[in-house]
Amino acid sequence: MRKKPVSAVQSAVLTKSARRCALCFHLSGTLKVKMGQIAHVDKNRLNDAEDNLVFLCMDHHTLYDSTTSQHKNFTRQEVKAARTSLYTAIANRQHHVAESSHADRSSDSDRRRLTALIQLMSGKGSIEFLRKRSFAGWSFEWSRLEGIEIVLARQGPEHEFLNKDLERLRRSFLTACQHIITTLATNTSPVGLKRDRQAVPAELETEKPVLFKQRVDEINSACDALCDTYDCLIRTARRTLGV
Question: pTM score, two decimals?
């Protein structure tokens, strides 16, 4: 049975490495937290001296402990040198600088996504149209929904926010966009000589006023839901990203 390092020594190794892999840092400079284990440099599992212990990610631990002849394995001196470099980087708090730089890049990326969304919804006039809509006895051009249709067509990770809370709000907004498109398609019909406009059928207002009101209320409710989710996304994004 493999003997575990004593807790005090294990704690010292974990603290000095901040759970960063010495070989990952040595090979690629990465200072990301890794799932890993404490490895024995001399591969003697009974030697729990701190100088004989190093934190490695799961892949590098397995590779270091392997005896395969397919590659030139890491030497003890190489692993110890990697550990020394890592400990120096952690002591100088370079891992926090790296995390901060990553956060800055993520924020910049999300700011660009936010700007693109605002420009699309305002530029196409879709959000203003839905805020000021009147569907009781009035027709509208379906092209006023172009911004919403473009949002729905933009699928894929390149359109997602990196911030999890903002992405959750964006997905709620997408759901509201799909709902308004479905609601308008279901409750309105083409009107006019060119059939290029949509409206809740006018005859319902006199023949079936209850149904007419029900359709208008359903559309207005869907519009309110979309505007609310859009406003929540924009306000939260501005607070989060400092825009």
Answer: 0.58
